[in-house]
Structures are given as C-alpha cells and as structure tokens.
Automatic annotation (TrEMBL):
UniProt organism field: Nesterenkonia flava
Protein name stated in the entry: Permease
Signal peptide start-end: 1-23
Origin: domain of life: Bacteria
Keywords, comma-separated and alphabetical: Membrane, Signal, Transmembrane, Transmembrane helix
TM stretches of this protein: 12-43, 55-74, 80-100, 112-130, 173-191, 198-217, 223-240, 252-273
Length: 280
C-alpha cells in the first residue's frame, strides 16, 4: 500500500491524457495543468526541500505558462517557445528565492536542485499539448523510402473524420493517444512487485510492443515512429522505477503522487521532439 499513490498516478495520468486528447487542445491543456499541480505540490516534499510553498508556486507557474503558451501560439516553430521561457525564468526565480531566504539556511543546495528539477518536469509536460498541435505527417508523403517501408495501413478501419483538429491530415491516430497508451502499458509492468532484473527490461519491451501493436491495428502511423515512442516511454518508466526503488517509498501521499506523475509529465517533451525529428 505504500506505493499505491505512485501506481495510481502512473496509471491514471496516461489514461486521462489519452482520453482528453480526443476532446481537443483546451481539454488536454487543462489535463496537463492538473498534472503540473500534482507535481508542484508533491515534488518539494519528495525532495525534502525547504521553502516548500514558494517553490511549489514556482514549479506550478512554470508548468502552467508552458502548457498555456503551447496551446495559444499561432506558429508551429513557437510551440515549445514558452516552455523554454518558463524553464529559464523558473530556474532564475528558484535562485532568487534562495537568495532572499538569507544566509545560513539548512539544505540550501538540496532545495535548489530539487526545485529546479521540478521546474524541468513541469515545463516539459507542455510537450503533450505541442505534440497534439503538431500532427504527424503520413509516411511516404515526403518521399522517404525508409519511412515508406515502415508504413502500415492498419488491420482495422481508421478514424477518418476530424474531431476538433485532434487527428492528423490523413485521419491518423493522435500521437498523444499512442504515447499515452504506451506509457499506460509500461506502467502496468513497472508496478509489478518483481525483481529489477525482470521488471526493467520487461517495461521497455511491453511499452514498445503496445505502441507497435496500436500502430499496426490502427494504421496511418509508421512503425518507426511508434517504436521510438514505445522505447522512450519504457526507458523513462524504468529509470523512474529504479530511482524509486533505490530511495524507498515516498513519505507521504502527495509525494507519492508526484513520483507517479513525473514520468508522464516528462514524456511530453519526448513526444513533441520525436514528432519534429521524424516528421519534419
């Protein structure tokens, strides 16, 4: 039961993101902001930092600004602009708070590093919104032989009608839903109370297999793209599980929920930049 809050958030957050991604950008932005709230409240407790209230506000504000900015920008090249701005000013604000606390305060270094890590996690969560607004192009349209060979039509009839601009230009599965599904599948394995030598590689394998299976069943996305997202989700979950096992169960419910939400939030940046790299 001591790991229940971690498992709850690790499983519930991807499902929420996948479901709301079909409702449109506004709904997904709200979900990402809620994810930032969970991280902002629990992360300072997890890291044992001081000045928790002020640092939690900085972590939350940075994440909300990044997510709302990604939802409002009009140009594709600016989708991650506000994440960079929020990250820079968030880290600067953390240092300013530490200076204002005065000299001789205990755990100043740990507090600074922990808060900066929280800012990084919440600002990268905006990648979910940016990834939704940057739909993947159909494989083969750019004349790429490799992507064309890895393209599959799909065994099931794919969705060919646009719901609030969620789907891509050819009606393909939302990349956000694909990545969130891979995270959910990997989280199921990562929550198993088995040996690390078994769970860690199994997490990567299952998340990758889930992404590839969805791509094959739905079609209109490349196996290369789905495989990269699946591997990224599995590795991220494996790293967070290893971190959790080494440091033990979180001391409170809020810190446990923050641990469970952190890999989901961090996955946002991987989703967006994988899209930009493979589907330019």
């Amino acid at each position: 039961m001591k790991y229940f809050p971690v498992a709850l958030m690790a499983l519930a957050a991807p499902l929420l993101i996948a479901a709301l991604s079909w409702a449109g950008t506004a709904a997904l932005t709200v979900a990402v902001c809620a994810l930032c709230v969970v991280v902002a409240v629990g992360w300072p407790q997890l890291m044992g930092v001081t000045a928790r209230k002020s640092l939690s506000m900085v972590i939350l504000a940075a994440g909300v600004i990044a997510a709302v900015g990604a939802a409002l920008v009009a140009k594709t090249e600016n989708l991650f602009f506000w994440s960079s701005v929020a990250l820079a000013f968030g880290v600067m604000t953390v240092f300013v708070i530490q200076v204002l606390r005065g000299t001789g305060r205990p755990h100043r270094l740990e507090s600074t590093l922990g808060a900066c890590t929280g800012v990084v996690i919440t600002t990268t969560a905006a990648g979910w919104v940016a990834g939704l607004r940057y739909p993947a192009e159909l494989a083969g349209t750019n004349g790429g032989d490799v992507l064309g060979l890895l393209h599959v039509r799909g065994l099931l009839h794919y969705e060919d009608w646009t719901v609030l601009n969620v789907t891509g230009p050819g009606g393909e599965l939302s990349v956000v839903a694909l990545a969130a599904s891979a995270l959910f599948a990997g989280s199921l394995v990562a929550c198993l109370p088995l040996r690390e030598a078994i769970v860690l590689p199994a997490t990567v394998v299952v998340s990758t297999a889930a992404a590839l299976t969805i791509a094959i069943l739905w079609g209109e996305l490349t196996l290369l793209f789905a495989g990269v997202l699946g591997v990224a989700a599995g590795v991220l979950l494996a790293c967070f599980r290893r971190f959790l096992v080494q440091h033990g169960a979180p001391g409170s419910v809020l810190s446990g929920m923050a641990v469970g939400a952190a890999p989901v939030a961090s996955m946002g940046a991987l989703v967006y930049f994988t899209e930009r790299l493979l589907f330019v």
